[in-house]
TrEMBL record:
Pfam families: SBP_bac_1. It comes from Nocardiopsis flavescens. Residues 1-22 form the signal peptide. This is Xylobiose transport system substrate-binding protein. Keywords: Signal. The keyword Signal applies. It comes from the Bacteria.
Amino acid sequence: MTTPRVGTAAALAALTLLTATACSGGGAASEDMHVWMYQDTLVVVQEGAVERFNEDQGADGTTAVIDQVPGDNYVERLRTAMGSAQKPDVFFNWGAGSIAPYAEQGLLEPLDDHLAQNPELAEAFLPSVLESGKVDGVQYGIPLRGTQPVVLFYNRAVFDEVGAEPPQTWDDLLSLVDEFTEADVTPFALAGADPWTEQMWLQYLVDRIGGPEVFARIAGGDSEGWRDPAILQAAETVADLVDRGAFGDSYASVSYTEGGASTLLSEGRAAMHLMGSWEYSTHLDQAPEFAENDLGYVTFPPLPDGAGDPANIVGNPTNYFSVTAEGPHLEHALEFLAYTAQDEYVADMVANGEVPTTTGAEDVLADSPDPEFAVFQYELVRDAPHFQLSWDQALTPEIATPMVTEIEALFNGQSTPEEFVDAVAAL
């Protein structure tokens, strides 16, 4: 997966144990409170929070330190550390499925009592985002980064050339597929070489057709939820899009990590691209003139007679901090969580191009590198009745990994919609 959608890479157990122990230092033997962060350019925001926390603690207080863990095997190293005496006191994660195994083992501190005692912290975040930090209805995660909804991006110049408007309904979208195909433009860029990108289509289709309850049943552990009629209809819709040529004929070899799909859009060889909001930053970096002049964005359209609210969104609500249970710095770790809601923290996020998940963030978005897009994202999340976490993050890796493989097979025509349903129901 790409940097915005951090994933796993296998590592030798002995090596991960050695590196995790070396970089953590957490646990009973450490005098410092260790905060594990996924290593990237945005960690500067969390570094600022740690500096303020340490200043507030004074000379005799607990000192927090950030351990930056390389992302290519962050999940494996965290798993190793959580099974040892060297657990981090606070750690970065993706909420829901990514922390469910630790919650089930009693390794995480439930945060409901803490939030009840500190209601200003609970009220500081958008409800739809805070919800994805829960496991079985219990709060284990506090938002720490910006929100990343999946957005339908489009090339304004290409639309102008054919005299088209961005889709507001599913019929509009199907008409555009035909219109752009006739104009020899691929209707939708799709990075099929990285099949997590295809998952976004199914997520929106299932939600628009059946509502959030369909996947909630699956995420709750009921594999028969995959046999809900909305799943089959979504799979049939995917097959129909493929047959119509919505993604062209070479999407299976297009890479997202190498910039292939984004380039198709910016160069006008594709008209639209369904992708996470980080796509805007990608274009701003790789094709700034296009990003500033011709990059448009709209929400995913509703489907006829669909049960899902058209205001629902999918993607990554945010990343979260969770606290290790019974750690030597538990009290201070809980205190540290409040720093992600402070004005200084939010201002640092905005300055680094992130869209905060705190309530009332509209006041600071004017300082964003692109206020218009920042406000669009924020209002999308703020007004969403439901924000579905990416399926491969909401489910445990044992189910998520083969699920993505089955999605790839569906998009590549290697399985029928009926075979897809049977395959995922058997996971």
